[in-house]
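Write out this protein's structure.
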Amino acid sequence: MELQTNADSRPQWKQELSNAIESVHQLLHILELDPAKLNLSEAAIRQFPLRVPLPFVEKMKKGDPNDPLLLQILPVTQEEQLDPDYQLDPLEELKSNPVSGLIHKYTNRVLMIGAQTCAVNCRYCFRRHFPYQENRISSQQLDKIIKYIENHPEVDEVILSGGDPLVNNDAQLSKIINRLNNIPHIKRLRVHTRLPVVIPSRVNDQMLSWITESRCPVTFVFHVNHPNEINNDLAEAIQKLRNSGCTVFNQAVLLKGINDQLETQLELSNKLFLAGALPYYLNLLDKVQGSQHFNVPEKDALALIEQMMKNTSGYLVPKLVRECPDIPYKLPIK
């Protein structure tokens, strides 16, 4: 298989990742927006830096300060507001962190912190305060994680998350996948990622190689919040994964002013299905400090789901869920 490269011999996705925009003023210059007319927050940027790749920026509408993709990544003054109902670790994941780099909250599955960074910094991220430096996975730490999984035969599925696990080189990912495949009681592997959504070129031949060689079936759970995030490049990436034997789901976060309208959710579900990804979960906002302006009340979320059920096929209606720190599964909201 031929690996797509550029002039400096790096894969295209690596170049696009390294060229991600980290300057608010550069971003707003590209989008032809006046910083003085936006509620930008330098404090929010220092606490949680801006980071967004150009392929994602290209999906944003120039001159529109209310573009739904821009609102997901723009640091604003509302993030500075402190709310006692919002926490640094809203899911209390550190209580389920038996080994550095591993979270074991659900009985039959564990989550590996496969990376400390993402390709894009979403302002509502529930791990925006997570102590990634304390959960780095070195070679020695990977040995400990594998040993932990081997000693817990009730675990039959491993989820690669992060950060975003796909920021790793494919050689690194192949090594991890091979070691997990050698554990007899592991039956399924899952990758939670937003990287192909913001950099579709990430799904290349080298990535597809370790997928097709895996003993365990590999499921991808993408994170697409708005129909404008789906273009032909992303649809092609999803089809490549499906052609390699992967199941592709999507889980979104319900965000005020971004995707809390019926028409938006219907369009999102239909575009996902046409692209080859099945709507899976619609998550209520995890109450992480700094994200309160994105919150949609539960009663409004329920009303939205009811309207979706009246207006589209059942398999296009995602499950409305909330994750709670003391419940070992995603709690359906009814």
